[in-house]
Amino acid sequence: MTGAKPFIAAALSLALACAGTAAAHRTPDAYITAERVEIGGEAVTALTIRLDAEDALRIASGSEALDADLSKDEVKARLATHLGLRLDIGEAELSYFGGEVEGDAVFVYLTGPAALEIRGARVLSSVYREWTNVVEDKRSDGPTRMFTQNGELAPGEQLIHQRHKH
User: Region Disordered: what ranges (predicted)?
Assistant: First the structure.
């Protein structure tokens, strides 16, 4: 399990870098980091997706945020499947590697082919009308490739969860 250490290091780095995000009047955001690791003697792409626990609950539950228990691995696996489908990676397949909750943050770990190309990310587009994704690709020997993608609900696209006003 030598490949797990980079995941943990990336998760801690992201947690520290993203600490202090205000919950009130915030734009929902997700942070995706791609790194090259070796698992079982094979080079793969390790993806770490960090998002707010409230956002993860909305995605995992599909309706009400309180219906899902993020401490259960099957809920994190369901969340990972949804997140993977929202990444623009062509025909590449991703595998669920694990997940964890740390305070108000949820980390989902996926693996894919070493040559995985991430062209876009819409991981929060099914639950929010407006969102931001930051993708950081650390796999090259040169400078880290980073892009931010903002989005709005596309015409005709439906949210899987409508936020209720109280």
Answer: 139-166
Q: Which helix (H) or strand (E) segment is 14 a member of? A: helix 4-18
C-beta separation of 70 from 61 below 8 A: no
Pairing of strands 130-137, 29-39: parallel
Distances in whole angstroms, Cα of residue 153 to Cα of each of 19, 47, 78, 131, 148: 27, 25, 22, 9, 17
Q: What is the pLDDT of residue 17?
A: 47
pLDDT digits (tens, 9 = 90+) for 41-70: 999 999 999 999 989 988 887 745 455 789
Measured CA distances, 43 to 37, 114, 133, 149 (Å): 6, 6, 26, 27
CB 133 within 8 A of CB 148: yes
Q: Look up residue 15 and give its two tokens.
A: 């947690």
**What is the SS3 assignment for 105-141?**
EEEEEEEEECCCCCCEECCCCCCCCEEEEEEEECCCC
Beta carbons within 10 angstroms of residue 156's beta carbon: 5
